[in-house]
């Protein structure tokens, strides 16, 4: 097994920068050109493209903007105006501009500019040396800004114990506000400040309750011009969306439009993405899945003018809205052979139809130049290296920019995942996934199956996407679950999105709505894996395991308790095992707002059903899925006299940071013993820098 461990370590996601080169292009646009950084085995290289001349210049010398990178606000703890004249910081609940106090009545739990505790994750921020910058949006004039004031003084608190503080001494208690389903929620108000004079204008909108994300957290407040401000507010449980227009000079605000539903009112394909709503004068480009699919609608003066897009597919991302040219550029989902692949499209704002600009049957990621003339498109499939091209506004390819170099990745033992389609548990609905096989795969052998699961209703598991600035690409080294690394140990790893997950239309996603367990398609996982094994004799249905983190940890335990004759082994990491004790946004959005009984979905009463091998892992300072959630499950298993293993990591939050190498090795050992049926290599240690010596 030692060779398998070495391959697994070499394929850890931390090695991607060394193993994958020229896989994507992120352009920095300038007047008549753009530049980007391209990785290579020899180090970074910089490419400048002159689109009109179709000219390419490559050099090792970094452009000035790359040579002098700006530290992010999370490091500096400050927000600086676009022209650099004003720097806004937060201290003791108040705001300061260039070090000068701007407000004077801030207090703990009622602070200016800061997120709620639940969104800020103060323990994680402290551990990673980050300082939470004030949340604000600068007006076009670069002098005024809008910020919020969050009141969470009435929100119940959560206390987490740090048993082993640095330097020793007594354990420390950390307390934060943490709203659970049915709790009183934090509220927010907004104010506009003049950074030069300190003048303040309060927006005439009553304090609005929210959970997890206030509008400024997720791009739901924006300036249209120096005098007009928009706020897109989601009601409790995401049952409605309300659009406010405010006069920045007086603070007067009005509701321009709103939409409500009995389930989830989405203003983007998922609740964790920036909204797909744009404004232009009296016109609003509005996103809604009222038709069963997420589409764009044009409103004028609060009245519907026309649908902009329609059909059995959905709008995934907005790239550019040109109000003068009356068109919108966007990425769609559902125009290809695989419903999760994105295509670049143009639509007429006035309802003249949609044109698909990218013919390649692949997943497309795109960037649009500020003037709309040029498109940088990177497209790929799970089995082919990505290709980056420059297109003109019609979608025609002007020149190829990059083609991914995967030779080092393949030399390390990586094997491209295989896409598959199966029927869900209903026998009718198609579900899609990826199958990762070991690099030394031999079809004459039999391989245990590992379901690498994350079945939370808010994000998918198997597709390339970007959420909150973080790129997820499971087709390479899978940062969300490490499937290639797990496959290298000698398992066939399945990554699947069953019913109840996003990007497949409202009917597909809302299978999970109101489900007290938020089990999100576990039956579909069983059905799909069973079908795969029937078609592929090398898959061993007698050895099926499951592993996941956070929502995937909860799914792992539920899989073992619900399908004990199918799932025999599980590694559950940092799970939310009881939804009545977890984030309010989770239970209230997917099970319904109060007075729903969120305790219905608890796994604790079913602890006695455990017959398989289970390892429970969590950090004692997890301020997301707090440790009490894991310990309550542990307590129930003890009361049921069930056999299980547990690893609690001191000083660790939702990620394991300093202990990640140890936790990973323990997970590998557990799966090797109980699923593969082999003995782990004695004394093996994963390099804390992850594969640097491999």
TrEMBL record:
Pfam families for the chain: DPPIV_N, Peptidase_S9
UniProt feature, compositional bias: Low complexity: 62-75
Span list, region Disordered: 58-84
Coiled coil feature spans: none
Keywords, alphabetical: Aminopeptidase, Hydrolase, Protease
Top-level taxon of the source organism: Bacteria
SUPFAM superfamilies for this protein: alpha/beta-Hydrolases, DPP6 N-terminal domain-like
Any one GO MF annotation of this record: aminopeptidase activity
InterPro entries reported in the protein's UniProt record: AB_hydrolase_fold, Peptidase_S9_cat, Peptidase_S9B_N, Serine_Prot_S9B/DPPIV
Presence of keyword Hydrolase: yes
Peptidase S9 prolyl oligopeptidase catalytic domain segment(s): 485-675
Record's keyword annotation contains Cytoplasm: no
Domain Dipeptidylpeptidase IV N-terminal: 67-385
Transmembrane segments: none
PANTHER family assigned to the protein according to its UniProt record, in alphabetical order: BLR1971 PROTEIN, PROTEASE FAMILY S9B,C DIPEPTIDYL-PEPTIDASE IV-RELATED
Protein name listed in UniProt: Dipeptidyl aminopeptidase/acylaminoacyl peptidase
